[in-house]
Amino acid sequence: MPFWPSPAAWMRNLRQCRSVQAVMTEAVLEREASAPAATARTKKVRRAVLAVLVLAVAAWAIGRASAAGASLPAALGLIGGLPWFELLGLGCLWLTAVALHAVVLAAALPGLSHRRAVSMNLAGCAVSAVLPLGGLAGTALNLAMVRSWGHGRLDFARYLMVSKACDVIARLLMPAVALAALLATGVLAPPAAGAWAPFAAVAFLAAALLLWALCGRATPLLRLVELTARTASRLAGRPVGAGWPATVSELLASAGGLVRRRRPALTLGTAGFWVAHGALLWCCLLAVGRQPMPAAVVLAGLVAERTLTLVVVTPGGAGPAEAGAVTVLIGLGADPTGALAGVLLFRAFVLVAAIPAGAALGLGWWAAHRRPARR
Questions:
Q1: Rg for the chain (alpha carbons), in Å?
Q2: How far apart are alpha carbons 4 and 84 in whole angstroms?
Q3: Does residue 178 surpass a pLDDT of 90?
Q4: Within 10 A of 62 (CB to CB), how many other CB atoms are there?
């Protein structure tokens, strides 16, 4: 019996899963299996439209950088002229960031080793980076890996919530940190920061609510969820989100004990991941520009890049993430071509390098668990 099940067996197993991600995956697979032949043409059209959209976003990103004075051929020339030992050092920094993020993943799933957390992270990132809207496919792969290692569906659901909550909290907190650093170092004047202060304040409050809820004080967040449900019901003209508060309360209750026990690892892993990514971006900009940039400026570019990776239209946020980071860096005084080269080099590590590494680890996991299943 092969380890990888047939589509029919896969769907039967997914129907037995009660986790949110398993149900979503089951719906996708059932819809693909039951689609008539006429729907295949529609799927091809959708894929073609997505491909055109990806190319259009990439062209838009290049156009934005060119309008600011950046030269793509010159930026690629700067990257191509780097010696191998500098690229090796940058690769070590990237691996350090991956290892620190694995600390968060291992803490979010008790019993998961650090090595397996690295495999899950890179394999999921590889799938997400090559497919538009590939986050669901990456999550389904991680679910299969976790199940093969003996963890349950509820453990995986709790792992998803805790790990994603740590990531979201950090992304919401960092805009306020970056804005404060720019003001403290004098890079940004208070009048210029006034336009960004409301957005940073709202993001900071949202992060504080979520963090407070994870620490066992969920009442403010639940009230906000109830208010959101009532507002959605009024706008839709029918009851919407009646079960949202109960669902959020149940998820927080299941994750609260884990967060309290693993708080140091979750905090240090998340902070270390951001520090390592900031160091990688700073070193990429230094390698191509040969002049160190202020840490506050690099942090602002990193916050822009990390925020825009949430754009799921393109794999890994490719296009908007680069354009946003380059625009912020140029706006804060960086050399346009150097900023473009540094951001492209940084994205080559965090996005492109994860594809072959994750594919190799995913294939290794599949081969390792296929042999015992055959026996």
A1: 22
A2: 40
A3: yes
A4: 17
Task: Give yes or no for a contact between 138 and 125, defined as CB atoms under 8 angstroms apart.
Answer: yes
Q: Residue range 136-157: average pLDDT?
A: 85
| Domain presence at residue 292 | yes
Residue span of the structural domain in which 134 resides? 35-190+264-374
Does 248 map to a domain?
A: no
CB-based burial label for 117 (10 Å; 0-12, 13-18, 19+) = buried
Kindly indicate the confidence band of residue 6, based on its pLDDT and cuts at 50, 70 and 90: very low
**Is residue 289 one of the residues assigned to a domain?**
yes
Give the chain's largest Cα–Cα span. Answer: 69
For residue 330, the number of C-alpha atoms closer than 13 Å in the C-beta half-sphere is 21
Is residue 15 assigned to a domain? no
Domain count, the chain: 1
Q: What is the pLDDT of residues 70-86, one digit of tens each?
A: 788 888 899 999 999 99
Q: Which two tokens stand for residue 369?
A: 């668990």
pLDDT band at 41 (very low <50, low <70, confident <90, very high): low
pLDDT at 35 over 70: no
Exposed / middle / buried, residue 254 (Cβ in 10 Å: 0-12, 13-18, 19+): middle
